[in-house]
Amino acid sequence: MDPITDDTFICTTHAAGRAQQRGVTLDAISLTVKLGERTPNGERYRVRCTERALAKMRRAGVPPTQVERASGTSIIRAPDGWVITVLPKRHHRHARVFRDGR
């Protein structure tokens, strides 16, 4: 069984601490692991809860409150299936705009 495509996961203590700091629940991490979009990031994978992943959750019958909590969640996952860290949620849709035109 390939650990990256497997729905089970184990959080490192670092990931658990970051999740707590950033207000990300284990349910949100679990949904992200199961239904999030995976992109290679060196040896690791970045798994994100994008709009497409949220639509997949809704179609799978996930309650709306859990879908909302999972939105914006991003994790870094090791090749052996461990969740290494939880990245900060992005609540804004647009890039930062500087006044000096940068």
Model description:
- This protein is of the alpha+beta class and about 100 residues long.
- It has helices at about 15-20, 25-35, 50-60, 65-70, and strands at about 10, 35-40, 45-50, 75, 80-85.
- It has a domain at about 25-85.
- It is about 35% helix and about 20% strand.
- The protein has a five-stranded mixed β-sheet.
- A hairpin with a 2-residue loop joins β2 and β3 (about 45-50).
- α2 crosses α4 (about 65-70).
- The chain is globular and about 30 Å long.
Task: Give me a quick take on this structure.
The protein contains four helices and five strands; from the N terminus they run βααββααββ.
Strand content range: 15-25%
Largest sheet: 5 strands, mixed
Mean model confidence by pLDDT: 84
Strand order of the largest sheet: 1-5-4-3-2
**Would you list the SSEs in sequence order as H and E?**
EHHEEHHEE
The radius of gyration over CA amounts to 14 Å
Low-confidence stretches: none
Q: For the record, give the distance between the C-alpha atoms at the N and C termini, rounded to a whole number.
A: 47 Å
Give the proportion of residues in helices. Answer: 25-40%
The tally of helices reads: 4
User: Structural class, from secondary structure content?
Assistant: alpha+beta
- Care to count the β-strands? 5
Globally, the shape reads globular
